Amino acid sequence: MALSIFAPVSIGNVSVGFDTLGLAITPIDGTLLGDVVSIKSAKTSSLKLSGQYVDKLPENPQDNIVWQCLLAFERVLSNLEIEIKPVVLTLDKKLPVGSGLGSSACSVVATLVALNKFYNEPLKEKELLRVMGQIEGKYSGSVHYDNVAPSFLGGLQLMLPAEQICQSLPVFEDCYWVMAYPDIVVSTKMAREILPPSFDKQVTINFGQNLAGFVDASHRKDKALAFALLKDVIAEPYRHSLLPDFLPVRHQLIMQGSLAVGISGSGPTIFSVCDNLDIAEQNKAYMQEHYLQSKHGFVHICKPDMIGAREIKTS
Predict the structure, then answer these.
(1) Are 279 and 156 within one domain?
(2) How many Å apart are CA 260 and CA 275, to the nearest integer?
(3) pLDDT tens digits along 266-314
(4) Quick one: which of 59, 50, 128 has its CA closest to 90?
(5) For FRET with 179, which of 95, 98, 130, 185 sits at 20 to 30 Å CA-CA?
(6) Is 222 found in the same domain as 275?
(7) Is there a single domain that holds both residue 63 and residue 150?
């Protein structure tokens, strides 16, 4: 019988924390938004692909990030002198590639948690997280944990230097996060290249003040201040041009009562934060009409996912 692991989507940056904040989220209607990886013993190792977005994956399964996770994990096992067993991995791709919702991170997290459980957890939490960051970094261009950490651990995670890697922050439990994916592709590489090579001193001061103030306000449960400071002075001034009508859409969502609006990761998904379900529903309806670019786009009203990667039952 196969062991199946689900890894939820995440918002990288969360506007105010470029490469330093990540939030795991889950739709309130119970939709599994993320990836599921199943594993079971086999005579020879292989990878099977399925799911709504499987057509967006590399044609050769061995080019898939899931297969690269398997190879990396087997190298770790060899170093630990643990016998390697052939397995069949199945990726159920429930998330579009290049969505700004941590698509590759979901695959990495679900695969490595599944492998670690299959081998009776030879890697501890921090060791496993470090491997996740290294593999994700090979695909995104640099090692950063703002998607893998929340997808793995759940909740709102603040990235820290050196050994600690990340720290959980409090979330505002009464808030809804309305996520809109328009069905266009913005590659992480493109979104990083559009940023300037350096930033003005005042911009970096503002970035530090906003992030520090947001962390402080979160701990003090000062919702008004926290979301007033949820501003992106690093990436959004440049990346908004990659998204369809972001500025007028953001303006209208704020006029409807949203507490904050921002770009999820490198886009094209955007989010709106509301502390009222009626306003969240209004935001959802507006983004369905004015932000989605095809019938394949979607909008979900979400809450923070406080669990992270977990085992699920599959049919």
Answers:
(1) no
(2) 10
(3) 999 999 999 999 999 999 999 999 999 999 999 999 999 999 999 998 8
(4) 50
(5) 130
(6) yes
(7) yes
Closest CA to 268 of 144, 98, 85, 65: 98
Domain co-membership, 50 together with 117: yes
Check whether residue 72 and residue 105 sit in a common domain. yes
**Chain Cα centroid distance, residue 246:** 20
Distance between CA atoms of 82 and 86, rounded to whole angstroms?
Answer: 13
Each residue's pLDDT tens digit, 30-43:
999 999 999 999 99
Say if residue 152 is in the same domain as residue 285.
no
CATH code (residue 80): 3.30.230.10
The Cβ-side half-sphere exposure at 97, using a 13 Å CA radius, reads 15
Domain count for the chain: 2
- Beta-sheet strands, E only, within 121-175: 156-159, 166-169
Q: Which residues pair with 23 in a beta bridge?
A: 11, 156
Q: Are residues 121 and 182 in the same domain?
A: no
Backbone φ and ψ for 50, nearest 5 degrees, come out as: -150, 180
In the predicted structure, residue 149 carries a pLDDT above the cut 70? yes
User: CB atoms < 10 A from the CB of 29, how many?
Assistant: 9
Write down the pLDDT at residue 120.
96
Range of the domain at 275: 176-303
Helices 103-118 and 125-140 pack at an angle, to 10 degrees, of 140
Query: In terms of pTM, does the model score above 0.90?
Result: yes
pLDDT reading at 141 higher than 80: no
